[in-house]
Each structure stands twice: as C-alpha cells, then as structure tokens.
Amino acid sequence: MPLLHEPNIADPDGFYESLIEHQRDLDDTQAREFQARLLLILANQVGDRQVLDQALRLARDAGGPRTSSAGLRPAVGPGAQPGR
C-alpha cells in the first residue's frame, strides 16, 4: 500500500476540532504523551512498515507549516497563516 498524498479524512475540520478538544485540558507533557499514544495507535492500524517509513520521512522533511515536496501541509490552527 503506497502512502496517500491526497486528503483522505472525512470531515477534516471536524477531526481537527476533535483532536484539539481531546487535548484541551492537558498540560504540555500530557499533550505530547497523548500525541505519542495516538501516533502509535494509528501506526498500528496502518501496519505497513514501508508506508510508515515514508510517512516518517515526509513528516521530518516537512519541518513546519509549509508545503512539502509531496504537496501536503501539516495541520495549522485557526488563524494561522500558511507558509509561516
């Protein structure tokens, strides 16, 4: 299974809201731990090591809220300005 480069989340705005809501009352350490647990849960769901390695490289290369070579941009919060 190749890494998807096109948006594939049904209701991405709703998902983003839910992601933020699940971290709302967490301090920075708890939020990082939550994100790590979520990452491992989703990685297990994907399961394909080649896809996971591609995703790791893409996330590392993206490095910030700018468009990557794959055309994907990390999620940015409300009011954030793309490319900054």
Contiguous helical run count: 3
Biggest beta-sheet profile: none
Distance between the termini: 32 Å
The Rg value, from CA coordinates, equals: 14 Å
Poorly predicted ranges: 75-84
Q: Shape from CA axes?
A: globular
Describe the structure.
The protein is mainly alpha-helical and 84 residues long. The chain has helices at residues 12-21, 28-46, 49-62. It has a domain at 28-59. The longest helix is centred in the middle third of the chain and has 19 residues, at 28-46. It starts with 11 loop residues before the first helix and ends in a 22-residue tail after the last helix.
Structural topology:
Elements: H1 12-21, H2 28-46, H3 49-62
Structure described in brief:
This protein is mainly alpha-helical and 84 residues long. Helix content is 51%, strand content 0%.
Task: Give short descriptive properties of this protein.
51% helix; 3 helices; 0% strand; 84 residues; globular; disordered C terminus; mainly alpha
